[in-house]
Every structure is written in structure tokens, then in C-alpha cells.
Fold this sequence. Notes:
Helices cover about 70% and strands about 0% of the residues. The chain has about 300 residues and is mainly α. A two-stranded antiparallel ribbon has the order 1-2. A hairpin with a 3-residue loop joins strand 1 and strand 2 (about 95).
Amino acid sequence: MATTTTTTTTTPTSMTTTATGTPRRRLRLRRFGDYAVLSVLAFVFVLPVLYLLLGSLKPSDEVLNGLSGFLPTHLSFDNYAHVLDALNSDSTGYFWRFMGISLLVAFVVVTGGLFVNSMAAYGMSRLKWRGREAVFTLVLLLMLVPFESVAVPLFYMFNEQRNTIYIQAIPFVANAFSVYQFHTFFRSIPPSIEEAARLDGAGPWRTFFAIIVPMSKPVFASVAILTFLTQWGSFLWPVLMVSDPSVRPLPLEMSVFQGQQPPDWGQILAFGVLLVLPVLIVFAFFQRWFVQGVASSAVKG
């Protein structure tokens, strides 16, 4: 009598599902944790801005009421109207004049800085000349020097140019950190591009403006935003150099407005919103290139 032996073949489907399911589950949990942490951080950073915006729309006696200040009650634009009305005479100065002075100073610093710092970085990163590394090391050392340590010497150097618009901008056009940003980006550009330009008869100036600059839009946007943000909030230098209300920038005028007694916190917060608004507009305009610049710097740096 013959005995029949049946052999069953098991497929590794269940094992594969278990093996692949566990990493996928872990990946989803990790993503959920990342999004949860980022959401909490975003909420913490947005909270003061939300309080600023809501407080600027509420009466002064309801602003400093703790957590109830976040409740959207009794909202109006009266605080903004009062700020513009209060700064609309020869005795108090004109709000839009303060805004225009700040925009002019920031424009000079940003445009001049993009031109000067990018060319300096190009010379130190792409051109070969004796002492190049020593000069770049000096630039790195200058990044460690805070402005507060040189503010008083600069004050005595430019004391005769006080109460002028250009003196608020000139000391900040050249910036060591901006040179470093440009230098890092330019070093990542393949040398073959410049070699091809030289074969076509292009000199250093033409190579820089016709080839390097169009390829470097992300870093130009990043430097422009950071420079504008720093210059727009500049306070120490105007305090030292500006005493004439006719050339007073907006941050300095806000400190004067805030010092009035009794303080109207609703109007002060409305002034703060008007002060922050140009920064948000600039960031929204350059956001795409700014993100590209930061991402490329993180990858290439």
C-alpha cells in the first residue's frame, strides 16, 4: 500500500507584510511626532503676533487682561486711525515721513550691500590673488565683533554728520555676514562655467554680472531679506545719531510714541503692527527664493 506524502508550500506574504508594515508604522508615528512638535513650535511663535494683532484692534483697557486679550471682542480700526491722526502735524511729525525715512535707509543698505558684499565675496571665492585667504579670515573674525562694541567709536568718528539720512545707512552697507553667505554660495558653483565664459572672451566683470548673478538669485534673496530685517529694526545707531525729528526713523519714533503718558496700549500695538507690516510684505515677496537659498546653503554648506 503506497503512502502519499503531501507537501505544502507556504508563501512569505504574511512575513513580508509584517516586515514592511512595522517600518511603515514607525515612519507614520515619526511623522506624526514631527508634525506635532512643529505645530506646537509654530503655535508658540505665532502666539505673540496674534496677541499683537488682536490687541491693536481692541480698546486700551482690554489689551492687558491676560488670556482674555486673545478673545476677539470689541474689534475696530480706531487705534490705527488715532496713531495716524496723532502723527500728522509739524509739532509731532508725520507718520508717513518716518516710514519713508526707514524705507529709504533700508533700501540704500540692502541695494548697496547686495552690490558691495557680493562683489567682495566673488573676489575672495572665485578670483586668485595673493592674500585672499588671509582677507577672508579677517572677514570671518569681523563676524565675531558685535556692533555695540564699535558704536561709540563710530559715534565720535561721524559726530559732525549727525541728523542726516545717509549716516544712518553708510556704516551698514558692508557686512561681514553677508560676505560669508555670498562666499559660501559662490564656492558651490562649478568652475567649468567660468572657464567656458573665459573661452568666449568674457572677463571677470562680465562673468560676474552675466553668469554668476543670474545663477545666485536664492542667495541674493536670502541676504536681502536678512539685511532688510536687521536694518528695519535698527535702534541703537539712530538713538546715538538722530535727535532731529525730521530725520527720525520709524523704530525710534515708536519709542518716543510709547513714552507718552499715559500710555495707550491699543495704539502702541497698532503702531507695532504698522512697523512689522513692511517686513511681512518683503518676506512674502522674496519667500520662494529665500527658502531656496536656505535649503541650498544647508545642502551645499
